[in-house]
Amino acid sequence: MATDETSRVELEAAVFRRLVEHLRSRTDVQNIDLMNLAGFCRNCLSNWMKEAADAKGVPMTKDQSREVVYGMPYDEWRAKYQKEAPAGQKPASEKASQGH
Predict the structure, then answer these.
(1) What percentage of residues in the chain have a pLDDT greater than 70?
(2) Which domain CATH number covers 14?
């Protein structure tokens, strides 16, 4: 598929927004589940957002990047939706997150 650079970036941005909206709507899916199954989670996305901002010289705090992904302050999301990880999931999550 040949496309110009602007269209490619717009398409990628639209896909990112859709992914973030999907994750916001699936509060039943815990970050540890995402990490164990896919090797990334909401926090990874927010970290990647911050790294991209830093690379472009765009001021952004870790809290701001998390709010982009979570749709609310991170502490608020945790209080509303985060559950304690079942026994045995943390080691798998730590292994999956290596290199992040």
Answers:
(1) 85
(2) 1.10.3340.10
